[in-house]
Amino acid sequence: MSHIFHISKNKQHIIMRSHIVRLIREFFWDQNFLEVETPHILKTAGQEPNIQAMHITIHNEHHEPFYGYLHTYPEYAMKKLLAAGFGNNIFSICKSFRDHESFGGTHNPEFTMIEWYRLDHDFFALMDDMERMFQYIAQGLKIKNFDVPSSLEKLWKRTHMRDLWREYVGIELDNYLDVSSMYELCVEKGFRPNKEESYEELFYRIFLDAIEPNLGVDEPQIIYYYPALMASLSKRSTKEPGYAERFESYIDGVEIANGFTELTDAQEQLERLKEDKNERARLGLDDYEIDKDFVEAVEHLPACTGNSMGIDRIVQAFAGCKNINDVLALPASEIFQS
Fold it and tell me: Which of 10, 80, 189, 260 is the most buried (most CB within 10 A)?
């Protein structure tokens, strides 16, 4: 398929995309958020075992090589800005890059993100932001005579992670918040996990099979309070022991957002990064140096909450497209496989 044919076939989706990006910016500008830019070229990458960074080599004027990565998200750099004393709520719209992703479906190696941070709020404020942002986008698209799915204009269904496991797996998740109990549950459900698997790997064996396909099918859905062993960069909850103040959002079974009440304990953050680094080693993945400047930033990070959303998937939702390639002018599949 030629590039021109692909672009022509998806012209209306690409036009809608342009309007959506503009509307997202307007939504945050109207609330006095400061738009920031962060570097795409980094010396090291995040430690998450499920995210692989793209290697790059750059050279200075003396032709000396420097080895680094394209960023997989702007989170570390944005938190450094907040730690440096930016007293504003901030947002960034940027390209992000991830290796070993599918070419199409719900992924593209190069994609667009919106990430934002609110000071002195918890993760429930971000859920409100998403609802209002989608309503704002819907209204703006209607003015431009685009058809909008009515479900995207409504309040989002909010579900505690515990309730999902009760409904779809038939168990009380509170009893399965450690590795050994989740391992036994996987065996009971017919899976064959390895003894070395992490809690997150075991959790997702069941979650991806029994729960995720049901999420956000009739209306957008927010899943909140993840097990503390899956806290990532989020704060552990004091209201819900054993859980972290983390949420994800789904539309038609596809995850489109990941938000936290942000962890501000630098020592705990460092320990989590070390654990992820060890997990990467166990899985035979690339070894990334821990970003010590990020750990220092966490030490000075004000109380805040942050969320990231895939703009490509937002466009998919409004355009009714099942394949991310249909909302991209030139996806990787067209560039490398056509």
Answer: 260
pLDDT of residue 268: 98
Beta strands in the chain (DSSP E): 34-35, 41-42, 54-59, 65-70, 90-97, 110-119, 157-160, 221-227, 243-251, 254-261, 304-310
CA atoms within a 13 Å half-sphere pointing along the CA-CB vector of 169? 29
Residue 86 confidence (pLDDT): 86
- In 3-state terms, what secondary structure has residue 153? helix
272-280: list long-range contacts, CB under 8 Å, 24+ apart: 272/231, 272/232, 272/233, 273/47, 276/47, 276/48, 276/49, 277/47, 279/49, 279/198, 280/47, 280/49
Query: Which residues of the chain are under the pLDDT cut of 50?
Result: none
The DSSP code sequence of 180-225 is HHHHHHHHHTT----TT--HHHHHHHHIIIIIGGGTTSSS-EEEEE
Report yes or no: 78 and 115 within 8 Å, Cβ to Cβ. Answer: yes
How far apart are the C-alpha atoms of 298 and 263, rounded to whole Å?
A: 7
Name the DSSP class of 82: H
What is the CATH number for 98? Answer: 3.30.930.10
Partners of 90 in beta bridges: 34, 117
Tally of domains in the chain: 1
Query: By residue range, what is the domain housing residue 47?
Result: 3-156+219-336
Task: Give the pLDDT confidence score for residue 1 in this predicted structure.
Answer: 62
The alpha carbon dihedral of 258, 260, 262, 263 has a sign of: negative
